UniProtKB/TrEMBL annotation:
Pfam family, one: Slo-like_RCK
UniProt region (Disordered), positions on chain: 609-633, 735-758
Descriptive protein name: KCNT2 protein
The species this protein was found in: Rhadina sibilatrix
The organism's taxonomic lineage, starting at the top: Eukaryota, Metazoa, Chordata, Craniata, Vertebrata
GO CC term (a single one): plasma membrane
Record has tRNA-binding as a keyword: no
GO molecular function, one term: outward rectifier potassium channel activity
Keywords per UniProt: Ion channel, Ion transport, Membrane, Potassium, Potassium channel, Potassium transport, Transmembrane, Transmembrane helix, Transport
Record localization: Membrane
Record-linked InterPro entries: K_chnl_BK_asu, K_chnl_Slo-like, RCK_N
Superkingdom, natural source: Eukaryota
Membrane topology: Multi-pass membrane protein
Amino acid sequence: DHQTILRAWAVKDFAPNCPLYVQILKPENKFHIKFADHVVCEEEFKYAMLALNCICPATSTLITLLVHTSRGHTAPWEAFRQLTGTKQTLNRESQQSPEQWQKMYGRCSGNEVYHINLEESTFFAEYEGKSFTYASFHAHKKFGVCLIGVRKEDNKNILLNPGPRYIMSSTDICFYINITKEENSAFKKQEKHRKNHESKLSYHGASRLPVHSIIASMGTVAIDLQDTGCCSGATLALPAEGGKEGRRPSIAPVLEVADSSSLHACDLLSDQSEDETTPSDDEVSAGLEYAKGYPPYSPYIGSSPTFCHLLHEKVPFCCLRLDKGCQHNYYEDAKAYGFKNKLIIVAAETAGNGLYNFIVPLRAYYRPKKELNPIVLLLDNPPDMHFLDAICWFPMVYYMVGSIDNLDDLLRCGVTFAANMVVVDKESTMSAEEDYMADAKTIVNVQTLFRLFSSLSIITELTHPANMRFMQFRAKDCYSLALSKLEKKEREKGSNLAFMFRLPFAAGRVFSISMLDTLLYQSFVKDYMISITRLLLGLDTTPGSGFLCSMKITEEDLWIRTYARLYQKLCSSTGDIPIGVYRTESQKLTTSKSQISISVEEWEDTKDTKEQFSCRGNHRNSTSSDQSDHPLLRRKSMQWARRLSRRAPRHSAKTAEKINQQRMNLYRRSERQELAELVKNRMKHLGLSPAGYDEMNDHQNTLSYILINPSPDTRLELNDIVYLIRPDPLTYVPNAGPSRKDSFCNTVGQDTREETQL
């Protein structure tokens, strides 16, 4: 950083008007280069991304895909073909793969963030004077684009999902997610043709709205088009209670302009959420009523102030130590605290200033108080006093001195009660003699964690992205072999993300800071990308701007069926904007050639190579060959076994039977059972109850991946996790209806056909 700062000063001194793009490592050095036009601080982004991975799975993969440019080719997309009869540029990655998840994941990975002025846009021009959520929903239904934010012409601040209260203006800059920018899309080419016929298709009433605009503004809701000639425009309204079907539709309409009765201004210092308006007796007795405000102490200059959940009084430093009792409490392990939510454990070498950015997004004011997870910092070295000064105001934040290669330290810090384990790359290993060996210790330690605690979700940071192929490594995994070949093909094609089909990356379980190098390059063309990324990660907060969160699709939500209907339900009820889906599937794979994603020719080549290699091995090492081909070896081994049997002490028949039974029990024990017994014995030795140790809940037979801005007709599946940009609760509170907080119960009991067709 010192050299980078000096170079930046030199450029500023020599060419003061030259735009300056700077990337540094440590957040405490940011204020030296605050004059630069664009700054990316690696540690800030890294820790914020790792933190969000714990509550919004695979956030690191989501951001990485958004900031990378994927090369496209012309291919049909069902939604575009049905709506417009055109073809759209799609991502080329994995389009030839026979695996369905690879096709969907590869296609959706081509989505990026683009911008356009509203009055010049084909996508959004017709929504001038309408609410933001109305424009976002109908633009997605009609064009498949996801409007995520806006910026006023006279304001530099970007607002992510400002909510239904925000009214679109002709001078607004719109930010949207799509496969390609509007200027390169087929819709722009049809604009002139559409304008030529607009006069013929226009409605010549008082409003003089084109008929196609009225139809496009319908969405999937019922519209009362009676007495259209007397209206000033199409109006969206719910059907009356006494309609033909005698019941309200299951999904309410997305209003053009939000009804003022459903919007309530919030007091900045009060909590309007349903789970915090009246604290329970348990919370009062435990002293859990938190305050909301800005942290009084920041560990470095230049950190953005964030409204957070805070304690009324700071915790004494002695109480921050998880494994050591003090005069205030006598707890010495995580189980003794009796946490209601599962832990988030961060294993790091030192408590650097960047680690502060791991805590802040998880304690932001918009996170529900009942969903806050305790945070345990497992540090190789004791933290400094100034770092403890910064974290002692946050609720349920603890530290412990220990290492992930010590099983006792892991058990004391509560690994058996943890929802996520974040393993941060150690700075001391980054300067290894061999570049790719820098991750060796981290990879082996994570592999040990993976074998001992198979149900634990482990998120790992690596120095080199190429080493992710060793995460959760299995030597005889034919599917990983197939993915390795696919990665090689993508690299030969010139893909920017050749590793994107690796299962750990697709599932968001591995991250490398070098994946964000393109963020600085993208800001050369898209000067807003750094700001949008910081808002998504919670590093910056702008009044009126939304935040990233997630919701899980349960059985009660499957009546929604498609992504388009989910989009409508969210926009009409909570004002949320969905931007993608995180999907987990069971990995039903065998070693048969027909189920592996490589061609038969490649498989044959691989088999031939193996046969040649095995033939060579027979000449080099006789022990690797079958003993049936070498009678002399077999005869000698049998003679050796007879000599051992003669020398062995003789036991009674009863003792011999007992020994044989014990030996058979040892043989029958699986490796998993041996590891479980090892962990339980260590827990008993430390005085910990082994009751919380989950033995068989294994994630090894599942694969997960992200679908960014999927097509409207994408079917929702059970346990899908939807990424949402939720409006700022300080400026907007959704209409409190009889709906479950992050789920949509069908109050009708049976879905009605609200998709009216004209």
